[in-house]
DNA sequence: ATAATTTCTTAACTTAAGTGAACGTTTTAA
DNA sequence: TTAAAACGTTCACTTAAGTTAAGAAATTAT
């Protein structure tokens, strides 16, 4: 299990056994059941997530309606806004499959980063990379129509379309579930002629 | 001029004179004329931007049409995707006002970061903060209609509405210029009753 | 200063998304 | 195992954005 993490990290920096032990000693490996809510609106959590297996989802609840904004799957990291801003969370995070998640506390991370400067470099590289990736995702969302976004999703994250309920996918694409159904029917009609 | 930068940085870390000199010696202060293109599609630049005064804009050109995806104004930093991914840029960056921009080369930054570990911490904090901020912006974009996005922009970045041409604002909001005109007329009608 | 270009707005028409409702299917819980 | 709830699709209707075109206003270049 830990090997998966260290294989991933080895792409960015090489870690000594001492450094690896420092990570392991944080005791961050967790098995999470489908449906578990990891973060609730209003909480000021300090927890960062890294998905080893499974899928977590972030969503707002507006007028009783869920608005899904992101899915994080294998080898993706997620630091909720409230952890950085130290203000109450405006959204929820929950687990949509039985998952194995690394959950680390910001205070712990800072402590370890203080001891091992290499971790600062690692975190910087990871968040710079994530920032750049997210910027591209945002750009693509802005310059695309809902239909283009859906087609784009089929290309880039085909797994999501299988493992995520339609109504969650719809709000992720910025539309209503009925519109996603219609849009899918439209595409199917086009490809048939 | 330099004071503006160091005042800003002092919010995150305290720098010694030696560290400040290291930054100054990079010779990164530039005066840029309105209309200057800083990055073209296809280029694999290594330049990072930090706006001290003025405004820069990133935009794609798709079928001859500009799609504006971001504006960066005073005290905002921007690292184009190509700098991180080391692949040719898919978008342009240009200056929409006479501006003073810090332009730094990634290689130089890495060299200086090697000498002064504190800079790694600084860069990590800045990019984590930026990532969190960007995530919120993306979330708000997804869960809002064009009209809500426009009203939101009036609240959050009223200056942009003054200093940016309508057609650039429109594509930033994910709609056509004609739709923005209509939307504004609609809002005006509502407020009058 | 004037001409050329770009920008902004308005309008009529088309296309697609939002809304409310119905209905069959699937999943969840008792 | 059944009842209840949630989910996905379809439909008719409404609302808003896309498109094409035209003209006024502002900006830029000569």
Question: Can I get a quick summary?
Answer:
The structure is a homodimer of 193-residue chains. With 193 residues, chain A is α+β, with helices and mostly antiparallel strands.
Helix/strand order of chain A: HHEEEEEEHEEHHHHHH
Biggest interface pair, residues each?
A-B, 35 and 35 residues
Largest sheet properties of chain A? 4 strands, antiparallel
Which band does the percent of strand residues of chain A land in? 15-25%
> What fraction, in percent, of the residue positions of chain A are helical?
40-55%
N-C termini distance of chain A: 48 Å
SS-based class of chain A: alpha+beta
The average pLDDT of chain A is 92
How would you describe this structure in keywords?
193 residues; alpha+beta; 4-stranded antiparallel β-sheet; 22% strand; globular
What would you say this structure looks like, in words?
Two copies of one chain form a homodimer. The termini of chain A are far apart. By secondary structure, the first copy, chain A, is an alpha+beta fold. Chain A has helices at residues 2-9, 17-24, 81-85, 106-115, 117-143, 146-156, 158-163, 166-172, 177-192, and strands spanning 29-32, 37-39, 47-53, 56-62, 65-72, 76-78, 92-95, 99-105. The model of chain A has no long low-confidence stretch (mean pLDDT 92). Chain A is built from nine helices and eight strands. In chain A, the strands form two sheets. A four-stranded antiparallel sheet of chain A has the order 1-8-3-6. Chain A has a four-stranded antiparallel sheet with strand order 2-7-4-5. Chains A and B meet through β4, β5, α3 and α5 of A and β4, β5, α3 and α5 of B. Chain A binds a DNA duplex (30 and 30 nucleotides) through α9.
């Amino acid at each position: 299990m830990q090997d998966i993490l260290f294989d991933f990290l080895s792409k960015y920096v090489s870690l000594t056994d001492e450094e690896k032990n420092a990570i392991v000693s944080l005791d961050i490996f967790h098995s999470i059941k489908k449906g578990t809510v990891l973060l609730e609106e209003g909480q000021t959590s300090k927890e960062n997530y890294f998905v080893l297996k499974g899928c977590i989802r972030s969503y707002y609840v507006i007028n009783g309606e869920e608005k899904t904004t992101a899915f994080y799957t294998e080898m993706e990291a997620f630091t909720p806004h409230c952890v950085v801003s130290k203000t109450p969370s405006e959204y929820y995070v929950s687990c949509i499959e039985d998952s194995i998640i690394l959950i680390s506390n910001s205070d712990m991370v800072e402590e370890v980063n203080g001891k091992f400067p290499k971790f600062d470099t690692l975190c910087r590289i990871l968040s710079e990379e994530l920032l750049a990736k997210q910027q591209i995702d945002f750009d693509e969302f802005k310059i695309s129509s809902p239909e283009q976004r859906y087609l784009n999703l089929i290309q880039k994250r085909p797994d999501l379309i299988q493992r995520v309920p339609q109504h969650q996918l719809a709000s992720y694409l910025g539309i209503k579930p009925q519109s996603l159904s219609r849009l899918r029917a439209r595409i199917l009609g086009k490809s048939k002629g």
